[in-house]
Design brief:
- Its EC number is 2.3.1.31.
- The chain is an alpha/beta fold.
- The chain has 2 domains: 252 residues, 3-Layer(aba) Sandwich (Rossmann fold), CATH 3.40.50; 100 residues, Rna Polymerase Sigma Factor, Chain: A.
- The chain is built from 11 helices and 12 strands.
- The strands form 3 sheets. It has an 8-stranded mixed β-sheet with strand order 1-4-8-5-9-10-11-12, sandwiched between helices.
- Strand 2 and strand 3 form a beta hairpin.
- Helix 3 packs antiparallel against helix 7.
């Protein structure tokens, strides 16, 4: 049975100063929702920040406020777990542009109406900039470590590169230093599905009943395929037909019903996602991921991004992850080596594809516990 983390606390920080953005604009009245677990020690040296992935949130190890489901990394965060709340004060914030308390497209602008598509374009570095403000408010000058998987790994890389003295360690799991053309293409399919939904209404669907749920569900279905592996999908579903209520198996219904079990699974993933996520947030966050290019931010050479860091790094990939394959992690490790930063790199074997960092992979538990315990 999973144990609950120590002292989960939900908070919202209201930034008193405008937040500058990479695009040249500023956001005023920014709020950042975050959760903490464990206790901060006297010299504030045991703080650790977790960055969440695209569809994650600050509820890393506490029940989700909408679905009631356990936190998305409860298996990793808690007393005696790899990210041990007996030892660490753990912070996780909802990203800028999100939809769980941090300022995003659904938030009210100065005129009292939702930003919708008036929300400014944001970057991964903008997200991190807002989370640095949380550390400033808590009086934490330097973290024990930053930890992130997938988009969370992008944020951890950006933090280590752009605020090089503010963490002693960085753990990057199943991530990349820039998005490939293939990843951008998958995101664009999802964005177009949302914008093609008549209920999107140019982004102005707030207060008009249901939003573009059909488009958002399709976006989630397309993305979810990239999180899995061919081996995992075959083992779980194969070509098995869906059982009908009358006891028969699926027939050729040409999309009106789910003939195959994998179809039913994807439809469930898509529909359940619409209950907990905002479509405009999906547009903005995926675009921020697509813009991410850590080398380009630092003159075109990835090693130069880490020229000032004093942190040690661990980079982890999975052999079945085709969204961010091992080659992407190896590129990060090589750049860190070139910059003279201490780095360890490991490719783990797991059948779950990109989602392996969220699922039961004991080898990952050992890597994380070992690295953070140093």
């Amino acid at each position: 049975m999973a144990t609950a983390p120590h002292n989960p606390t939900s908070s919202v920080l209201d930034l008193t100063a405008p937040l500058p953005l990479d695009g040249g604009q500023v956001l005023t009245g920014v709020r950042v929702a975050y959760e903490t677990y464990g206790a901060l020690n006297a010299d504030k040296s045991n703080a650790l920040m977790i960055f969440h992935a695209l569809t994650g949130d600050q509820c890393v190890a506490s029940p989700h406020p909408v679905t009631g489901k356990p936190g998305w990394w409860l298996r990793m965060v808690g007393p005696g777990k790899p990210i041990d709340t007996d030892r660490f004060f753990v912070i996780c914030a909802n990203v800028l542009g999100g939809c769980y308390g941090t300022t995003g497209p659904a938030s009210l602008a100065d005129d009292g109406e939702p930003y919708a598509m008036r929300f400014p374009v944001i970057t991964i570095r903008d997200m991190v900039r807002a989370q640095v403000a949380v550390l400033d408010a808590l009086g934490i000058e330097q973290l024990h470590a930053v930890v992130g998987g997938s988009m969370g790994g992008m944020q951890a890389l950006s933090f280590a590169a752009n605020w090089p003295l503010r963490t002693r360690a960085a753990l990057i799991v199943a991530s990349t230093a820039r998005h490939s053309a293939q990843n951008i293409a998958f995101h664009e399919v999802g964005r177009q599905a949302i914008m093609a939904d008549p209920k999107w209404k140019g982004g102005d669907y707030y207060g008009a009943g249901k939003g573009p749920d059909s488009g958002l569900a399709v976006a989630r279905m397309a993305a979810h395929i990239t999180y899995l592996s061919e081996e995992g999908m075959h083992d779980k579903f194969g070509r098995k037909l869906q059982d009908r209520p009358d006891g028969t198996k699926g027939a050729k219904t040409f999309g009106f019903d789910a003939d195959f079990q994998v179809e039913s699974y994807l439809r469930h993933q898509g529909l359940s996602f619409t209950d907990r996520f905002d479509a405009n947030s999906y547009l903005y966050i995926t675009r921020a991921m697509d813009y991410f290019d850590l080398a380009e931010e630092h003159g075109g050479r990835l090693a130069d991004a880490f020229a000032r860091t004093q942190a040690r790094f661990a980079v982890v990939s999975f052999d079945t992850d085709w969204l961010y394959p091992t080659a992407e992690s190896r590129t990060i490790a090589h750049a860190l080596n070139a910059a003279g930063a201490p780095v360890s790199f490991v490719e783990l074997s797991a059948p779950f594809g990109h989602d392996s960092f969220l699922l039961d992979v004991p080898a990952l538990d050992r890597v994380i516990a070992g690295f953070l315990g140093q």
